[in-house]
Specification:
Rossmann fold, alpha/beta, 7 helices
Length: 215
């Protein structure tokens, strides 16, 4: 990204998204946030534009007008139990990005979603099938998004952060991209890493997790 980038943030009223919007604005970027309920967004800033709407009812071409990069941090575990909500949306988003000339896309998946062509570590597979089994539809939706991006959208500068999001609270340190390890991060740390990944050319076409480095 350039020093000042126009970002479209999907999921900007969520727990990670709120931090992401604040951090992006503080870094000098402009942000357009799609929000079903705009009052949930607590940030007020001159470079913030809030558009009321939802993923299933919007004009993507208008939403992407003047946008350099998209950050998508969206999940609906209840809806994703029965249908691949995010996959259907991304399949519409990518062609709209091509039409508008929007080049870069950050997609936040979960740490229990396997990257294309890989398997989760045995310990993560156990967690996914037991403690996190109610989110299986969400994991499968994330995996379908990654598969689509990897096989049909290589012309777009996409990157996926398979974040191990745990809880709110103060920063526990700096997360770093990792293809082999995933740490349970706070919302603010995951948001910070999302913004870093979006600016990192080496992250293009990767589906990495993130981890805190040991001091």
């Amino acid at each position: 990204m350039t020093s000042t980038t126009s970002l479209l943030v999907l999921g900007g009223t969520g727990q990670t998204g709120q931090h992401f919007v604040r951090l992006a604005l503080a870094a000098g970027h402009r942000a357009r946030v799609l929000a079903r309920t705009p009052s949930k967004l607590t940030t007020v800033h001159g470079d913030l534009e809030v558009v009321q709407g939802s993923l299933d009812d919007l004009d993507l071409d208008a939403l992407l007008d003047g946008i350099d990069a998209v950050a998508m941090m969206v999940g609906d575990a209840a809806a994703q139990r029965s249908r691949r909500v995010n996959t259907a949306f991304v399949r519409s988003l990518v062609p709209a990005m091509r039409r508008s000339g929007t080049r870069r896309l950050l997609y936040q998946a979960g740490g229990l979603s396997a990257a294309p062509g890989t398997k989760l570590a045995p310990a993560l597979r156990v967690v996914r099938s037991t403690i996190a089994r109610s989110y299986i539809g969400q994991h499968e939706d994330n995996e379908a998004v990654m598969q689509y991006l990897d096989s049909e959208a290589r012309d777009v500068e996409w990157m996926v952060h398979r974040a191990g999001i745990g809880s709110d609270g103060p920063s526990k340190g700096e997360l770093h991209r990792s293809s082999s390890s995933i740490s349970i991060g706070t919302f603010v740390d995951c948001a910070t890493d999302n913004l870093s990944i979006l600016s990192d050319p080496s992250a293009v076409h990767t589906c990495d997790g993130s981890t805190y480095r040991q001091s």
